[in-house]
Design a protein that fits this description.
globular; binds xylulose-1,5-bisphosphate; binds magnesium ion
């Protein structure tokens, strides 16, 4: 039987919205300040820290690389967990202030897919409360998604394929029936290793990363009044990505 498009699976950070530089990063710094820890993650440093996915994992990586003396602290794991929780509280505050919009085309495509009966899911390394903090401040409600696979639900975070395999299992779908939307090399690797076809919407942090074998690499999904730019792959005639175009490259 001919495969047909049945589901769209979305990454969150960097894909649905630019949450890293002006969201998570700011909130991490606020959490450090509240705990009287003199760390400040600059925009450039944060690019290096994005090497490691997951907020707790990122703090741990930072300590190992830049503050090794900290490794001797008692209850380090608890301290990291507390910092992460505090950061998530500040992150929610930032989003509740409406500071981070969805990226171009995200709302339009998700709404079109929903109306067409295409199944929707999320696969992210971020913690679930952070996903909800974002969605609840947009017109795209959490219940649009059949599955929200988030955070520690699988122990091995991206670039491991586990989170995507988990979603496929929950949807009872084969990878050939889905499209994934990602913004980063790590996310792309995770999806690719799970056998999924991937569309990349790059952002400032990820535009120079390697996306060899991605089906399509664009600067964003585009809108009728805001054309996208294609970096690799077929060019949608309309200047934005919609279901008809997705079907045509499926
Ligand atoms: C997202 C991440 C996360 C967020 C913070 O990656 O790497 O670590 O920065 O998440 P992806 P927490 O977009 O590939 O899913 O909720 O763990 O703090
Ligand atoms: Mg991402």
């Amino acid at each position: 039987m001919h495969n047909h498009l049945q589901a769209l699976i979305f990454d969150v950070d960097g894909t649905l919205a630019d949450t890293e530089r002006d969201g998570h990063r700011i909130a991490f710094n606020q959490a450090f300040a509240e705990a009287d820890i003199p760390w400040n993650w600059s925009i450039d440093l944060y690019e290096k820290l994005l090497e490691v996915a997951g907020g707790k994992e990122r703090i741990c990586y930072y300590i190992e690389q830049y503050e090794p003396d900290f490794l001797a602290r008692e209850n380090l794991e608890n301290l990291i967990a507390d910092l992460h929780q505090s950061k998530n509280k500040y992150y929610r505050k930032l989003l509740d202030q409406g500071s981070i919009p969805l990226r171009p085309g995200v709302q339009r495509l998700i709404q079109e897919a929903k109306q067409a009966g295409i199944r929707l899911a999320i696969a992210t390394t971020s913690a679930l409360p952070n996903v909800l903090a974002l969605l609840e401040n947009t017109p795209i409600q959490p219940n649009y998604f059949e599955i929200i696979a988030a955070g520690d639900i699988v122990p091995a975070k991206k670039p491991a394929p586990d989170i995507y395999l988990y979603v496929l299992d929950k949807l009872s779908l084969n990878p050939e029936n889905c499209f994934v939307f990602e913004d980063s090399h790590h996310g792309f690797l995770a999806a690719k290793t799970a056998g999924l076809k991937t569309i990349i919407t790059v952002n400032d942090y990820t535009k120079n990363q390697d996306f060899t074998d991605a089906l399509l690499v664009v600067n964003h999904l585009g809108e009728p009044d805001q054309s996208l730019t294609v970096l690799t792959g077929d060019i949608p005639e309309k200047g934005y990505l919609d279901l008809a175009f997705l079907e045509s490259i499926f």
